[in-house]
Amino acid sequence: MFTIKRIDVDAGEYTVILNSADAYEMGIRSLDRVKISSKKRSITAIVEISETMLSSGEIGLLTRAFSDLKEDIDSEVDVTSTPRPTSIEYIKKKMNGEELSFNEILRIIKDIVNKNLSNIELAAYISAVYTRGMNLRETKDLTMAMIETGDTIDFNKEEVYDFHSIGGVPGNKVTLLIVPIVAAAGYLIPKTSSRAISSACGTADIFEVLTNISFSAEEIEHIAERVGGTIVWGGGVNIAPADDLIIHVEYPLAIDPYSQVIASVMAKKKAAGVNRLVLDIPVGPNTKVATFELAKRYSRDFIAIGDELDMRVQCAITYGGQPVGRAVGPLLEAREALAALENKKVPNSLFEKSLSIAGMILEMGPMPAGTGRPRAKDILCSGKALKKMKEMIEAQGGNPDVTSESIEVGKYTHETLSDRVGYVDSINNKTIVKIARAAGAPKGKGAGIMIYKKRGMKVDKDEPIYTIYSDSKAKLDQAVKLGNKLRPIAIEGMVLETIKGSNGMDVYDE
Amino acid sequence: MFTIKRIDVDAGEYTVILNSADAYEMGIRSLDRVKISSKKRSITAIVEISETMLSSGEIGLLTRAFSDLKEDIDSEVDVTSTPRPTSIEYIKKKMNGEELSFNEILRIIKDIVNKNLSNIELAAYISAVYTRGMNLRETKDLTMAMIETGDTIDFNKEEVYDFHSIGGVPGNKVTLLIVPIVAAAGYLIPKTSSRAISSACGTADIFEVLTNISFSAEEIEHIAERVGGTIVWGGGVNIAPADDLIIHVEYPLAIDPYSQVIASVMAKKKAAGVNRLVLDIPVGPNTKVATFELAKRYSRDFIAIGDELDMRVQCAITYGGQPVGRAVGPLLEAREALAALENKKVPNSLFEKSLSIAGMILEMGPMPAGTGRPRAKDILCSGKALKKMKEMIEAQGGNPDVTSESIEVGKYTHETLSDRVGYVDSINNKTIVKIARAAGAPKGKGAGIMIYKKRGMKVDKDEPIYTIYSDSKAKLDQAVKLGNKLRPIAIEGMVLETIKGSNGMDVYDE
Q1: CATH architecture entry for A161-395
Q2: Per-residue b/e over B286-320, b at no fewer than 16 CB within 10 Å?
Q3: What is the CATH number of domain A412-507?
Q4: What does the pLDDT average to over A346-355?
Q5: A154-158, B190-194, B491-495: the lowest-pLDDT one
Q6: Distance (Å, whole) CA B13 – CA B114
Q7: Span A454-479, pLDDT tens digits
Q8: Which helix or strand (DSSP H or E) is residue B59 part of?
Q9: Which of A279, B43, B185, B358 could crosslink B376 through cysteines, CB 3.0-4.6 Å?
Q10: Coil, strand or helix: which one is B311?
Q11: What global pTM score does this model have?
Q12: C-alpha torsion angle, residues B387, B388, B394, B397 (rounded to 10)
């Protein structure tokens, strides 16, 4: 029998610590597994060994193991050595380039969700999916396994619409226009969104400055059916929970295995009750999808998996070469989106992208081809979208009287001026994100960047090209320093004028 | 400034824990990296986040980070966010199937040795080498990188011999015969050996029952040059230290990437000053190398890498289908090896294998082809090998008067009888190991198994087939139970007699 000690560290896996003498006696090595049994329940955990932290006869349970075993400190438990989970054999099978069956994939995903795999084993799984890939059948089965190991939402409506951007472009606040437009047309669009992982801000980070975003599956169903649209944080519900655990391990490696991206998106949407989905796939350097070819491959496979899941999927391959609109950062983006809904001055890229995608969604419903975009424009320009947005904000517990002018962005600001005459040759998405994060985004809600000069635009010497906002003077200074070093907006001299002049036509209207 | 707290857990990597509010404020996520700087030195560590273990302003250093930063508890340090190491890019390059340059491989190995990589990143490296492989040039560079990141030994002698078994066969105590035979012939053979990881006992575990095995590089050099031979524990010196750190991560995945096996063996031998090496590659089910083809591929590549390192390498592909000799377990194997040196009754497989390999080593030196094995036999049978063994034991601080009869093996024993008449069809190496480990090996020095009936031998009903030894009654009982369940020795009935009779010729003399 062992006495429980609590060690308050969250290692992301079930971990326990044994005294080295006990481990030696039991023939247990670091990273072996033990079963810890109390009278009421038992868990399997991974062992780390300590020379001095615990006395012989004590077992230290890290946060997750402690809270799930539900025993008091100093109570007695039985500890026995157990073999490694069979899912490790399936991970090795994938490492060897073999195809996995549904049951093998389900076993892996179950062990991930039940925290039976260590970070090492999880990293091997991610690496194997990254290097060996999965065929469409496996990807579908992975999607099903991710759905099956979490909660699902069922709406009392036949068609449930949604929109998802596979990310990588800063300033992509289109959701805040699309959802109210589509909902105002009488469609049901219960959008779950995410917080920033490595970006400047996710849709959840933006919408959070306007209203509450954390709801249970039941509440989401209730609000969406009443108002027609929601924008809520997907992390607040237990939908496809394997995804977060997988992302935790992908993050340090900065990899996004192709099949895993598809399965994660599709599992979350399917589990959320969606059956009509438009996917935005931004293409460009420094986005998730670097080439048009890869974007087309994603499109084909998303649509094919959708077919298998009885979900109609359409993909919009969009321009991801520079930020969407001018604002990057939670409050700055909320302000820009509200201004668009209020029919104030709004960047063309935000306007065009939002209407095109909203139009696609409308045409996935009963509207005839060619009528979606004009209808979306009408809803936006008539103020119906703004009205719907206010309903959504209120239904989620926020203040519906908010306006773009009432929003207070970061009070510390610094304007950067051009040191030359020329044209904007490129804007580096990753650098923009770095600066916004240095200024405090996404946690610092007022932090971010306003970009005044976009690709192809003419710039005079000493003309403002961007302004950094922050809630903290120290962070502003850091972000300014970083901006001066990284130069997110590249301005080419006049020599290139004739070439840039014609290239710039695409976006000159910003 | 942060105040240092100590957390006595050895996570195998530099890990620190931050309060969640501080991490939030600094924009740091779990598994990000920080630089911790005191006045004297700085280290880079991986961050885990705790809600309640630490107060804001405190940083918890896990064992390795704490001991290497060399600061007191409650002293103040500076903590700043730092980017992930560039070696992660090279790991991704290998995951993508690209070839790595020497500098890229060296960067990875340096980051492993300096504990700059997390378990997740290390697992991705191992997985990438496993799935993508390395070509010979990369394998050589990996070997060089592993040598360069540790200590090396230089002997004052032109030819330095060694022997290494790539493992997987229980009872393989041949080193205890080979080293004294070769040393008695006047050759320098400073053998470094390892402890058991998943086997019943390593050579280091066996020799430890006879003398000390833990020495510094300088002491090894000194003893070997005086006596001619040593058998020491390789883990006691800082030779190719990357190996242990890599094994730590391979262990839970139970993988042994091909190129990594070659690089690890060759790096350790080269760094230990060896330039004449015989490799024993046991082939058989339940050994590391399952097929003859794979054994040949290993042989070719070991020899090719040897050429690049100015090391002459010869490989002996040996029979690994059942244990070598009859004894498995530290004291039981030491007793069997001593009995052989004392020219007492000794199993043929141990005798043959030891003499063949010793003969190969002798012929790598000045001895003409065909004279090595007879010379080895002469040294063994004349008692010269025993004399050398006693010198080695004494030089390493043990009692040279030890004899096979003075060795006391586990006092709790259980004899298993055959329940039928027949012939031994097969012996399962893995099952033998499991039973020996259940009995307490390798930590329980007296624990193990004596096998009386080997492949092809005739067995009567109620005749003893094996005896389990243990230092503990409880462990003996467990091991006996396991043996009865797993039946390590498969006995076929008389129907198969004629077939087995001829098959059995190979080994009937045991």
Answers
A1: 3-Layer(aba) Sandwich (3.40)
A2: bbbbeeeeebeebbebbbebbebbebbbbbbbbbb
A3: 3.90.1170.30
A4: 92
A5: B491-495
A6: 9
A7: 998 999 999 999 999 999 999 999 99
A8: strand B58-62
A9: B358
A10: coil
A11: 0.86
A12: -150
* Cβ-Cβ contacts under 8 Å for B67 (sequence gap 6 or more): none
What is the arithmetic mean of pLDDT over B341-356? 92
Alpha-carbon distance A219 to A192, whole Å? Answer: 13
> What residues of A are in contact with residue B123 (Cβ under 8 Å)?
119-121, 123-124, 127
> Which residue blocks in A152-215 are alpha helix, DSSP H?
175-184, 203-207
Report chain B's terminal Cα–Cα distance, integer Å. Answer: 71
Contact B65, B45 (CB under 8 A): yes
Given a cut of 50, whether residue B387 has pLDDT beyond it is yes
Question: Which residue's entry shows tokens 């989970």?
Answer: A85
Q: What is the overall mean pLDDT for chain B?
A: 91
Query: Which residue type sits at B313?
Result: V
Longest dimension (CA), chain A: 81
Tokens of B396: 């390493």
DSSP state at residue A509:
T
Write out the two tokens for B431.
């099952």
Q: Give the domain B2-82 fold.
A: Barwin-like endoglucanases (2.40.40)
Residue A78 CA to residue A210 CA, distance in Å, equals: 50
Catalytic residue, chosen from A22, A32, A111, A256, is A256
| ipTM reported for the complex, 2 dp | 0.83
User: Are B361 and B163 within 8 A, CB to CB?
Assistant: yes
Give the right CATH number for A87-133 from 1.20.970.10, 2.60.200.20, 1.10.150.130, 3.20.20.30.
1.20.970.10
- Per-residue pLDDT for B251 more than 70? yes
* Max CA distance (Å), chain B: 81
Phi and psi torsions of B34, nearest 5° = -130, 155
Helix (H, G, I), strand (E, B) or coil at A54: coil
Residues of B in contact with A91 (CB under 8 A): 253
Residue A372 CB partners (closer than 8 Å, separation 6+): A358, A359, A360, A361, A362, A363
Q: For residue A45, list its beta bridge partners.
A: A34
Q: How many whole angstroms separate alpha carbon B433 and alpha carbon A220?
A: 56
Q: Which two tokens stand for residue B360?
A: 């190969």
- The type of residue at A305 is I
Percentage of chain B surpassing pLDDT 70?
96
Catalytic residue annotation of B? 256
Q: Which residues of B touch A95 (CB under 8 A)?
A: 127, 130-131, 255
Residue A343 has φ and ψ, to the nearest 5°, of: 60, 30
State pLDDT tens for residues A477-509: 999 999 999 999 999 875 433 333 333 333 334
Q: How many other C-beta atoms lie within 10 A of the C-beta of residue B195? A: 18
Residue A253 to residue B7, Cβ atoms within 8 A? no
pLDDT band for position B284 (50/70/90)? confident
Residue A190 preceded by cis peptide, ω within 30: no
**CA triplet B79, B80, B85: central angle to 5 degrees?**
120
pLDDT digits (tens, 9 = 90+) for B425-472: 999 999 999 999 999 999 899 999 999 999 989 999 999 999 999 999
Q: Which of A29, A50, A443 sits opposite B10 (nearest CB)?
A: A50
As a whole number of angstroms, the distance between CA B6 and CA B73 comes to 6
Instruction: Decide if A30 and B12 are in contact by the 8 Å CB cutoff.
Output: yes
Over residues B99-119, the pLDDT tens digits come to 999 999 999 999 999 888 988
Q: Where are the domains of chain B?
A: 2-82, 87-133, 161-395, 412-507
Burial degree of B280 (CB within 10 A; 0-12, 13-18, 19+): buried
Per 3-state DSSP, chain B is made up of helix, strand and coil in percentages (nearest 5) of 45, 20, 35
Whole-number Å distance between alpha carbons of A186 and A314: 20
Q: Are B243 and B268 in contact (CB under 8 A)?
A: yes
Nearest chain A CA: its distance from B444 CA (Å): 9
| Residue matched to tokens 């510094």 | B216
